[in-house]
TrEMBL record:
Superkingdom to which the source organism belongs: Eukaryota
Cited PANTHER family: LIPASE_GDSL DOMAIN-CONTAINING PROTEIN (PTHR21325:SF50), PHOSPHOLIPASE B, PLB1 (PTHR21325)
Keyword entries, A-Z: Signal
GO biological process: one example: phospholipid metabolic process
One MF annotation (Gene Ontology) recorded for this entry: phospholipase activity
InterPro entries: GDSL (IPR001087), Phospholipase_B (IPR035547), PLB1 (IPR038885), SGNH_hydro_sf (IPR036514)
Protein's name in the database: SGNH hydrolase-type esterase domain-containing protein
Organism: Caenorhabditis nigoni
Signal sequence bounds: 1-17
Pfam families assigned to the protein according to its UniProt record, in alphabetical order: Lipase_GDSL
């Protein structure tokens, strides 16, 4: 019954002809589309076609709340349009809608885990391996990591020991939304790390201990200061955000305060990667995709005019078009070597298009193969 309701709601959103962003007829050189001649044993020798399973942890942006909501219907933002989620959505083809899962299905059409339709994280037919929960803070992805491990182990189409898995994480917005209530608790933790950073480490450690052959890709924190630019002279948006994000509407928590905390979270994410904390097992690694880091402004439709088609009716969550746009930039960052990844993109320009993996180093870029690809080079099925 839930699946039927989800399908009906999806058809209704399609009927409204919502703006979207796809990549019609996209493909790359055969040498980078091929899988490895032998299934790799190292996380630093994984070609994109070797990835068989995709999962995701996060909050309402990963659950894609409101992505398919009709314009002017903020109540529809409570609906979780998981099939449109930029990391893992699988409702449409890549021609129609860009998501990382849809791109990976070009490399491996049998990819397992892409979410479909509308519904919550505990409905397999909808969520599949999208564990994102609306309202989640960084502490909550610890439980999501356990749920992801349990779900992977319980489904026979997933060979946990042998299949290569990509787990996407995007978290932090809700931490900012409560930060001003208790900044001391939310900013300090043992060993000089923030609570936010330690929560991510704990979640990823669960994945490392229970999921061999896994690459964790974390989409870097974005600057929540831009919310106030979206709200400017939009009283409807401002009113909604009072309920959705207390600290965003708290004027004592200044623009500089918000930005400073976000930058601190970004630094913490980078620290997890650069210290090599999760490079102690050859079949597991952790990579940050930092394209949000340097973005200070929301997307514009014309100079100074915020492009509201990028957002759901609550002026915060991404619309289908917003998810497609973010999915494009995320993929383009994924294929860039660590140390040379873009730290800012132009959200106002949807014409960038999808990039292809490097022909000289056609593996999922990691901290190790980005420094010395030759040391991790293996043959493809075409060699």
């Amino acid at each position: 019954m839930r699946w039927l309701v989800s399908t009906v709601l999806l058809l209704c959103s399609v009927a409204y002809g919502l703006k979207d962003l796809g990549a019609p007829n996209w493909s790359c050189d055969a040498s980078v589309m091929a899988k490895s001649k032998k299934v790799p044993t190292s996380a630093h020798s994984v070609r994109f076609a070797d990835i068989k399973v995709i999962g995701a942890l996060g909050d309402s942006l990963t659950a894609a709340n409101g992505a398919g909501a009709p314009p002017g219907d903020p109540l529809a933002v409570i609906l979780q349009y998981r099939g449109l989620a930029f990391q893992i959505g699988g409702d449409k083809s890549l021609d129609e809608h860009i998501t990382v899962a849809n791109v990976l299905r070009k490399f491996n059409p049998n990819l397992v885990g892409a979410s479909k339709g509308i519904g919550s994280e505990n409905v397999w037919e909808v969520a599949h391996l999208n564990m994102g929960v609306p309202g989640a803070e960084s502490k909550d992805i610890i439980g999501q990591a356990r749920a992801l491990v349990s779900t992977m182990h319980s489904h026979s189409e997933i060979n946990v020991k042998e299949d290569w898995k990509l787990v996407n994480i995007f978290i932090g917005a809700n931490d900012i939304c409560v930060y001003c209530e208790d900044p001391f608790f939310n900013s300090t933790a043992p060993h000089g790390k923030t609570t936010f950073e330690n929560n991510i480490i704990t979640a990823v450690k669960i994945l490392q201990d229970n999921l061999p052959r896994t690459i964790v890709s974390l989409t870097g924190m974005f600057n929540m200061r831009m919310l106030r630019k979206i709200d400017k002279k939009k009283y409807f948006c401002e009113g909604l955000h009072t309920f959705e994000c207390d600290c965003e509407s708290n004027q004592k928590f200044t623009d500089d305060d918000i930005q400073g905390v976000c930058f601190g979270y970004m630094d913490g994410e980078k620290d997890i990667q650069n210290t090599g904390l999760f490079d102690n097992k050859d079949d597991f690694t952790f990579v940050v995709q930092p394209f949000f880091n340097g973005i200070l402004d929301p997307p514009y439709s014309s100079p100074g005019v915020v492009d509201m088609t990028f957002f759901a009716p609550d002026c915060f969550h991404f619309s289908a078009y917003g998810h497609g746009n973010i999915g494009m930039h995320l993929w383009n960052t994924i294929v860039q070597p660590v140390g040379f990844k873009q730290t800012s993109v132009n959200l106002s320009d949807p014409s960038v298009g999808l990039h292809c993996p490097s022909t000289s180093c056609p593996f999922f870029p990691t901290t190790k193969n980005s420094k010395n690809c030759a040391a991790h080079f293996t043959l493809s099925e075409l060699d």
